[in-house]
Design a protein that fits this description.
This protein is α/β, with parallel strands linked by helices. The chain is 25% helix and 25% strand. The protein is built from nine helices and 15 strands. Strand 9, helix 4 and strand 10 form a beta-alpha-beta unit. Helix 2 packs across helix 3, helix 2 packs across helix 8 and helix 5 packs parallel to helix 6. The structure holds NADP nicotinamide-adenine-dinucleotide phosphate. NADP nicotinamide-adenine-dinucleotide phosphate binds next to helix 2, helix 3 and helix 9.
Length: 339
């Protein structure tokens, strides 16, 4: 046990359920008391926490695959930090750990749910992104859910984000015949082609997605990795070849919708083309974790796979980081760093 513990910790609470786009008024940064960890727990000083699109869903009071955030309680999410006090066997002060109590400066975490991570292998923030949840989502979604095969032509939306940028690069490294990405700025499009080795990319804000996709993939696509939904999904259904597969990973274009959003108008194409559209949750693919870490870790070490992070400094900017993520202000993984 360490003697001098901090006495208080700032933490973000959800104080109102957003209607449509969240605003800063829906959140409050509050002080909480810090005490020595109870038996079986550790006290962690969070160094980075993750803000993720799925958190928008947890702000609604609806039954889903993750429970809603409770009002006037600290929000949760991935975080990495340093253990500063331990009442648990096998975890020592100074250890670095990954856990699920982000959105706060200090977290008292049950030792059974922390994962020890090694900052000498990769920067700690990487365990929230390229070597963490979003990385596994990309890996499992492409290889397991979409049944990627060498020679496939792959289209990924949200391609400059955490999941999307990794999907495109894994497809390239695994022998895709063509990798196409869409993103929301010309600068992101340039990054995809010039840095990440995509064969083609386009800015979905410039022209209809269907037209731009047809131009980028004149022979069609075998795999669509969907991070966006809406117009992107409809365009992909049109461009998918016979027996094409889509991993339906996210539909960020509708997370702030206040009314039910229409489905793809061309869904009937699924029949004749015998398409497979498969939803996914990363939590179902934990068994792939060792293979994922080994393979992606190797590509990172060799420099074959690149990644970006957009780090917002300071707990007080946590909500702005989340809102910025929804607006596309991030390139790669959006992280809040606590210094
Ligand atoms: N199923 C699962 O288990 C699982 C796990 C992790 C993530 N996901 C999903 O995967 C997707 C990507 O997540 P991520 O963590 O990697 O986030 P991200 O892509 O790093 O960040 C979100 C990006 O979405 C784009 N975006 C926002 N509104 C959009 C719109 N209306 N149309 C098109 N693009 C829009 C923005 O980029 P632009 O500048 O390009 O617009 C923004 O940067 C999300 O849909 C998320 O919910 C699912």
């Amino acid at each position: 046990m360490t003697a001098a513990l901090p006495t208080s910790s700032r933490e973000w609470h959800l104080v109102a359920r957003p209607q449509g786009w969240p605003t800063t008024e829906d959140f409050a940064l509050r002080e909480a008391e810090v005490t020595a960890p109870a038996e079986g727990k550790v006290l962690v000083r969070n160094l980075h926490f993750s803000v993720d699109p799925y958190m928008r869903g947890r702000m609604n009071d609806v039954k889903s695959y993750t429970p809603p955030f409770q009002l006037d309680r600290p929000m949760e999410g991935g975080a990495v930090g340093e253990v500063i006090a331990s009442a648990a066997e096998g975890i020592s002060v100074g250890d670095h750990v990954l856990h699920g109590l982000g959105w706060r400066e200090y977290a008292e975490v049950d030792a059974s749910v922390v994962v020890t991570v090694d900052p000498t292998i990769a920067p700690l923030s990487a365990y929230l992104g390229v070597l963490g949840m979003t990385g596994l989502t990309a890996y499992a979604g492409l290889l397991e859910v979409a049944s990627f095969q060498p020679g496939d032509a792959v289209f990924v939306s949200g391609a400059a984000g955490a999941v999307g940028s990794q999907v495109g690069q894994i497809a390239r490294l695994k022998g895709a015949s063509r990798v196409i990405g869409s993103a929301g700025s010309d600068e992101k499009v340039r990054l995809l082609v010039e840095e990440y080795g995509f064969d083609a990319a386009f800015n979905y804000k410039n022209d209809p997605v269907a037209d731009q996709l047809r131009e980028a993939a004149p022979d069609g696509i075998d795999v669509y990795f969907d991070n966006v939904g809406g117009e992107h999904l409809e365009a992909a259904i049109s461009s998918l070849k016979v027996r094409g597969r889509a991993a339906i990973c996210g539909m960020i274009a509708q997370y702030n919708a206040t009314k039910p959003t229409p489905g793809p108008r061309n869904l009937a194409l699924v029949i004749g083309k015998r398409l497979r559209l498969q939803g996914m949750l990363v939590g179902d693919h934990a068994a792939l974790q060792p293979q994922f870490v080994e393979e992606v870790g190797g590509w990172l070490a060799s420099g074959e796979l690149k990644y970006a992070e957009t780090a917002v400094e300071g707990i007080e900017n946590g909500v702005d980081a989340f809102l910025g993520l929804l607006r596309g202000e991030n390139t790669g993984k959006m992280i809040v760093s606590l210094g």
